[in-house]
C-alpha cells in the first residue's frame, strides 16, 4: 500500500506530479484556452459579483488559503481575507450576502471549518468547498465546490493536499480573471501553459532528494529553525515551519522575510538554521539583503533558489534548486524541498513520520 516507499508521507510527496495532473485534468483545456469547473461555472455570477472572497480553513489548508489570497488578488482583483476557521466562528465576523466564502479542507471533516461554514450560510453568503475527501461532511454542507482529486492522504502531515489545493484555487482565480478581464489574454494562456508544466517541474525538484538528505543530516540537531519567504512564498515559509514542527518536534517559525528585523533577528546566532526562499522572481534583491543580515549574525543559511542561481549560492551554506516558473506558481515548487527536509530530519531523529504524537489526521473536535 506504500508502493515501495518507507512511509506514506514520502509516497505522497512523490505523488504530487500525478496528483496535480489529476487536479487539472478535464478542467484546464490549454490549447482551447478554457478553464471549466462545474461548481464555479454553475455559480459564475456569484463569483463575478463577489464583494470579497473570505477563505476559512485550518493548518496547512489555511496556508493554501494564504497563497490563494495572493493569487486571487493578483489575477482576479477581488479582495480576499483569509481566516482561521476557529477565530472566524467566534468573532462575530462581518459577512455580507454578496461575499463568497471558500472553505478549504483536505479531510472535509474539520470541526472548526464546518462551524465557520454554518455561520457563513446563516448570514446568507455563498459557500464554496475545496475538499479532497469525496462525500465528506464539508463537501456536503457547502453550496458548491471543487474536489482536489489528490487521492487518499494517509500521512498526518499534509503534503499533496496542499499543492493540489493551490492548483484548484489557481484554476478558479484564472477563470475569474479571464471572465473579468483582469488579466490579458496572452497572460491567461501563459499561466495555463505554466500550470501544465508544473508536474514535470516538481519531478525535477524531487531530484534534489539526496542533496536534501545531506542538509538534513547537518542541521537535524538544531533546536530551532527559522523559515523566511516573501510575497507568494511567505505562506510557504509558514508551511515549511509547520511541517518541521509536526513531525520532527523541532521548534520552527515562519516569517515574512522583511519582518525579521522587527524581532526575530534577535534570535539569530551560529546555532540557528534559517531556510530562506529566494527564487529569482519575487523580491529577489530584497531577500538577498535579508540573507546578508542573517549571515552577518552568523546564522546558517539554507537557500531555496531558482535553478542556476549564483548570488544566493555565494552567501548560503546550502542551496536547494527548483526549476523556474512564473512567480505566482513558485509555491508549488518551493514547497517540495521543505517537505523533504522535514521528512528526512524526522526520520534521522527516529520520529514516527506518518503518525506524529498528539496529532490526528482529521480534527473533528474543536
Ligand atoms: C498539517 C495538518 C493540519 C491540517 C489541518 C486541517 O500537516 O495536517 O494542520 O492541515 O488540521 O485539516 P483539513 O485540511 O482536513 O481541514
UniProtKB/TrEMBL annotation:
It comes from the Bacteria. The keyword Repeat applies. It is found in: Cytoplasm. One of its GO terms (molecular function) is glutamine-fructose-6-phosphate transaminase (isomerizing) activity. The active site is at 361 (for fru-6p isomerization activity). It catalyses: D-fructose 6-phosphate + L-glutamine = D-glucosamine 6-phosphate + L-glutamate. GO terms for cellular component: cytosol. Its EC number is 2.6.1.16. GO terms for biological process: amino sugar biosynthetic process; carbohydrate metabolic process; fructose 6-phosphate metabolic process; protein N-linked glycosylation; UDP-N-acetylglucosamine metabolic process. Keywords: Aminotransferase, Cytoplasm, Glutamine amidotransferase, Repeat, Transferase. This is Glutamine--fructose-6-phosphate aminotransferase [isomerizing]. It comes from Mesonia phycicola. The gene is glmS. The chain holds residues 250 to 615 of 615 of the full protein.
Amino acid at each position: 500500500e506504500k508502493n515501495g516507499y518507507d512511509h506514506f508521507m514520502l509516497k505522497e510527496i512523490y505523488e504530487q506530479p500525478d496528483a496535480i495532473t489529476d487536479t487539472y485534468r478535464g478542467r484546464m483545456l490549454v490549447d482551447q484556452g478554457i478553464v471549466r469547473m462545474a461548481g464555479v461555472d454553475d455559480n459564475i455570477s456569484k463569483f463575478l459579483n463577489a464583494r470579497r472572497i473570505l477563505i476559512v480553513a485550518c493548518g496547512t489548508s489555511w496556508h493554501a488559503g494564504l497563497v490563494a489570497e495572493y493569487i486571487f488578488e493578483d489575477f482576479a482583483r477581488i479582495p480576499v481575507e483569509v481566516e482561521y476557521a476557529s477565530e472566524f466562528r467566534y468573532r462575530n465576523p462581518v459577512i455580507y450576502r454578496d461575499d463568497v466564502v471558500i472553505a478549504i479542507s483536505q479531510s472535509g471533516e474539520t470541526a472548526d471549518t464546518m462551524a465557520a461554514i454554518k455561520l457563513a450560510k446563516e448570514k446568507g453568503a455563498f459557500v464554496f468547498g475545496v475538499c479532497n475527501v469525496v462525500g465528506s461532511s464539508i463537501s456536503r454542507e457547502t453550496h458548491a465546490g471543487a474536489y482536489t482529486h489528490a487521492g487518499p492522504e494517509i500521512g498526518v502531515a499534509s503534503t499533496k493536499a496542499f499543492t493540489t489545493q493551490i492548483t484548484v484555487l489557481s484554476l478558479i482565480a484564472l477563470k475569474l480573471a479571464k471572465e473579468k478581464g483582469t488579466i490579458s489574454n496572452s497572460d491567461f494562456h501563459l499561466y495555463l501553459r505554466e500550470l501544465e508544466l508544473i508536474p514535470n517541474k516538481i519531478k525535477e525538484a524531487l531530484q534534489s532528494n539526496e542533496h536534501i538528505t545531506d542538509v538534513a543530516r547537518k542541521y537535524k540537531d538544531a533546536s530551532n529553525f527559522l523559515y523566511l519567504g516573501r510575497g507568494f512564498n511567505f505562506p510557504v515559509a509558514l508551511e515549511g515551519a509547520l511541517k518541521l514542527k509536526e513531525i520532527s518536534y523541532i521548534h520552527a517559525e515562519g516569517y515574512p522575510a522583511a519582518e525579521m528585523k522587527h524581532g526575530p533577528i534577535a534570535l539569530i546566532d551560529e546555532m540557528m538554521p534559517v531556510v530562506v526562499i529566494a527564487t529569482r522572481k519575487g523580491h529577489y534583491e530584497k531577500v538577498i539583503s535579508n540573507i546578508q543580515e542573517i549571515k552577518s549574525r552568523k546564522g546558517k543559511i539554507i537557500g531555496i533558489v531558482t535553478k542556476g542561481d549564483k548570488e544566493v549560492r555565494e552567501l548560503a551554506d546550502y542551496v536547494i534548486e527548483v526549476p523556474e516558473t512564473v512567480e505566482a506558481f513558485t509555491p508549488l515548487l518551493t514547497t517540495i524541498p521543505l517537505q523533504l527536509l522535514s521528512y528526512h530530519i524526522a526520520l534521522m531523529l527516529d520520529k514516527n513520520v506518518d503518525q506524529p504524537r498528539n496529532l490526528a489526521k482529521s480534527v473533528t473536535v474543536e
